[in-house]
Design a protein that fits this description.
single chain; about 20% strand; binds pyridoxal-5'-phosphate
Amino acid sequence: METVSNFQKLQASVPENVLIVAVSKMKPESMIQELYNAGHRDFGENKVQDMARKQEQLPKDVRWHMIGHLQTNKVKYMAPFVHLVHGIDSLKLLKVINKEAIKNNRSIDCLLQVHIAKEQSKFGFTETELMETLASETFKELEHVSIRGLMGMATYTPDLERVRGEFKNLKRIFDKVKQEFFQGDSAFDQLSMGMSADYQVAIEEGSTMVRVGSAIFGLRNYS
Ligand SMILES: *Cc1c(COP(=O)(O)O)cnc(C)c1O
């Protein structure tokens, strides 16, 4: 019950053109089902095994978003069903996703992750690496991945003005990439940024997709 009311409150504070990905990592299937019954379809997980297990048990029209760091050897377990992969941080990973997409006779939607935070622990391309990757011949040959936009995570800090600066930077990179590599390509239209603590700032700075976990499902128990 609380999950649904948390979600509805969140939804009321988010513009209609911004998609809420309900991050259900470490939460049981029953909580996902509850929100599904209320009409929501987009859920995010950060571990392939967990996502595959939940996908088997839950209705087949759930749209599963892979939001975590990915190992190439796990791609095959999600390739048949994943809706959108948010965290692409290497050309090698993109090549593996392309190969698995071919095996499954489909195309897989992906977002390229950009490193915008000050923390070293966060993943993603630097701006230079991103430009080089997109310009490479190898990238152009990948016909079974569809690049739908960019994703980024801001520094974990209560300083929301710093967070705002990082989101502004990601939006600038998004606009530049769109202009240089995806002009006239209407599929490149998604900017995944914002979590429970900073989704409002992210939306003000141009996010089209927020990944919200604890503000919907409550705090995660890591013990
Ligand atoms: C866990 C996670 C989220 C959601 O975090 P909350 O603070 O619970 O909203 C969003 N994005 C990524 C990549 C995550 O790993």
